[in-house]
Amino acid sequence: MSEIKNRIDFIYIFDVKDGNPNGDPDAGNLPRVDPETGMGLVTDVCLKRKVRNYVQIACAGQAGNDILIKSKELSGEETFINGEIRKMYKEDLGIDLKLKEKAPSDKVSAGRTAMCKRFFDVRTFGAVLSTGANAGQVRGAVQMTFARSEDLIVPEEHALTVCAARDEEKPYEEQIGIQGRKATVPYGLYVCHGFISANLAQQTGFSEEDLELFWDALKNMFDVDRSAARGLMSAQKLIVFKHDSMLGNAPANKLFDLVKVEKVCDGAPRSFSDYSVTIDKNNIPANIVLEELI
């Protein structure tokens, strides 16, 4: 595995058409919205879930690329974090822990390292492993912000009708007709900012190979996560700033300011072509390399 030695900052731009990119359970699963501005939001947790799902599918059965926080709908399995920690202690460190038994305090550090080696998402995003058997806490090398839409979104609700009854013991007419609602965004372009720490990468074992897998996930994760509820979601831009040092050579916000996303249509945007994405390449510091991966 190749060690990461450079700080990396990145901008990830994606869009949604006629779908719900991230429902808010506190608002009847309507698309998340900043109540003061009307801008759409997609949480970092939602995006990390899609990365996990992609790796879970793309790297199924590969040692070292398992996913701790699995999606049952993909794996068909019920995963329990404490159970996975006990399994690691037994298989990797030869410590057979009973249910609710804590690992010896002098073995927690080794347990933490072993969990990072086993699970891609642990060494990438971090995890709280201090419950149950206890394998400490991991601060991930990759951190991401909420994604925010460039313009305000207008969530729409659509009535859904059912034409087939299910229960023969109930009147047929009571079981057909309007039975639910579906929320969508006509169109939204979302921008997420991300940070990769070389220092934390060396602590968790997040490698250059892991980084390539992470980039692959951002490029392709929407294509393995299709559903009627999400409409058409697409990755549109992945802009990477690679510093020539571990600590970095410029503030991340100054680099992000070099990327401008501007609406170029007169009315409400309805496609990515209604926006212009430009990069001020003349003001990128000489010791920072720009890469456009999408």
From TrEMBL:
InterPro entries, A to Z: Cas7_Csh2/Csh2, CRISPR-assoc_prot_Cas7/Csd2
GO terms (BP aspect): maintenance of CRISPR repeat elements
Superkingdom in the source lineage: Bacteria
Pfam families tied to this protein: Cas_Cas7
Signal sequence extent: none
Protein name: CRISPR-associated protein, Csd2 family
Species of origin: Phocaeicola coprophilus DSM 18228 = JCM 13818
